Amino acid sequence: MAYSAKVMEHFAHPRNVGEMTDYSGVGEVGNPKCGDIMRMYIKVENNIITDVSFMTFGCGAAIATSSMATELIKGKSIDDALKLTNKAVMEALDGLPAVKIHCSVLAEQAIKAAVSDYYRRQGIDPVPIVGELEDCEACELDLQ
Ligand code: FES
After folding, report:
1. Are 24 and 121 in contact (CB under 8 A)?
2. Distance, CA of 61 to CA of 76 (rounded, Å)
3. Model confidence over 44-95: pLDDT tens digits?
4. Which H or E element spans position 109?
5. Residue 104 pLDDT > 60, yes or no?
6. Is 139 a residue of the active site?
7. Residue 139: its pLDDT value, please?
8. Taking CB atoms and a 6 Å cutoff, what residues make up the pocket around ligand 1?
9. Do 53 and 43 touch, CB atoms closer than 8 A?
């Protein structure tokens, strides 16, 4: 299993790591099979994600995808952030080994969870906008 240079670089030097205290929304998602957990904080002003940070207790691919995902949504509108797919995150990292694809789903779901929390805090039902947070199929598989 080979990781791209970009994955290794984001794993070794992850961007936007850490806790945020003045966040507008926070979401936490986990993969029950591997036990990895990802927490994403967003700060929103005028519908723009002005700041984002994450804490990931997980594998290298989960850390690299969280790092890249935060880079891709920082400064973007909420709508654009919700359009970010795990595939786009993987492409930005020059790919992931097939067995690690489920790790990138965690990043996509963490963004959705943080945006859902942001809407809830505004008194807005997030489900019609963000949708239900789905379990990824790959995460349902037995991961060894
Ligand atoms: Fe659990 Fe990568 S997210 S192995």
Report:
1. yes
2. 23
3. 999 999 999 999 999 999 999 999 999 999 999 999 999 999 999 999 999 9
4. helix 101-121
5. yes
6. no
7. 53
8. 31, 34, 36, 58-59, 61-62, 103, 106
9. no
CA distances (Å), origin 64, targets 1, 17, 23, 116, 120: 15, 11, 22, 23, 28
How many percent of the chain have pLDDT more than 70? 92
Assign 142 a pLDDT band (cuts: 50, 70, 90): very low
Residue nearest to atom 2 of ligand 1 (CA): 103
C-alpha span between 61 and 66 (Å, rounded):
8
- pTM, full prediction: 0.91
Kindly give the number of the ligand 1 atom that is closest to the alpha carbon of 59.
2
Fold classification of 5-129 (topology level): Sufe protein. Chain: A (3.90.1010)
> Residues 6 or more apart from 48 whose CB is under 8 A from it?
75, 76, 77, 78
- Residue showing tokens 């240079």: 5
For the chain, what are the domain ranges? Answer: 5-129
| 136 is an active site residue | no
**How close are the terminal C-alpha atoms of the chain, in Å?**
14
- Taking residue 25's Cβ as centre, other Cβ atoms within 10 Å add up to 24
